[in-house]
Amino acid sequence: MQYKITSYNEEETIELAQNIESEKFPNMVICLEGDLGSGKTLFTKAFAKAMQVADNITSPTFNIIKEYEGELKLFHIDAYRLSEVKQDLGIPEYFKKRGITIIEWSDLIEDILPKNRLVIKFRIIDEETRGIIIVPYGDKYIDLCEKVL
Ligand SMILES: Nc1ncnc2c1ncn2[C@@H]1O[C@H](COP(=O)(O)OP(=O)(O)O)[C@@H](O)[C@H]1O
Ligand SMILES: [Mg+2]
Question: Closest Cα partner for 51 from 67, 68, 64?
């Protein structure tokens, strides 16, 4: 099953993040794929704001994993950098900490992703247009998509 959406501007991508956030649950994992500038961090910022994270979300590129306090904990992971460092950062532990994990460039670490997850793929169509494909894996994520998409 997959959902295809077109986002015609930043605001529509923000609304998508808000809608998904409204059905968040502990241990939720959201995997973001797509080229540089396609909207992965914008989506994460909007999601974080919706879950009352007060801190400014910055790209985790240099830290690889950033942790924020909100209605639940938010773990923001950049797998692009992760694939370059060889050390074991214990990523699978984050999926069990009862927070929300959002992973940019998740396709680079597919082998350690949980079976159940929400995958969101962004494609740049033009300056303001993004093709978005959402694929839910597992009943909870399928239900979530039925509710909010
Ligand atoms: N429809 C849209 N959805 C998401 N971002 C958009 C859209 N239109 C324009 N943008 C712009 O594209 C850029 C996306 O950047 P960013 O979220 O940092 O990308 P990524 O994290 O995928 O590299 C932002 O500057 C944002 O304002
Ligand atoms: Mg980014």
Answer: 68
Atom 9 of ligand 1, nearest CA residue: 128
Q: Is 110 in the pocket of ligand 1 (CB under 6 A)?
A: no
pLDDT at 62 over 90: no
Instruction: Please determine, for residue 39, whether its predicted confidence score (pLDDT) is greater than 70.
Output: yes
Round to whole Å and give the CA distance between 118 and 120.
7
9 lines ligand 1 (CB under 6 A): yes
For residue 58, what are its two tokens?
Answer: 């910055």
**Ligand 1 near 40 CB (within 6 A):** yes
- The CATH number fitting domain 3-148, selected from 3.30.420.40, 3.40.50.300, 3.40.50.10540, 3.30.70.1350: 3.40.50.300
Query: pTM for this one?
Result: 0.97
Q: What percent of the chain has pLDDT over 70?
A: 97
Q: Probe ligand 1: pick from 30, 32, 42, 59, max atoms within 8 Å of CB?
A: 42
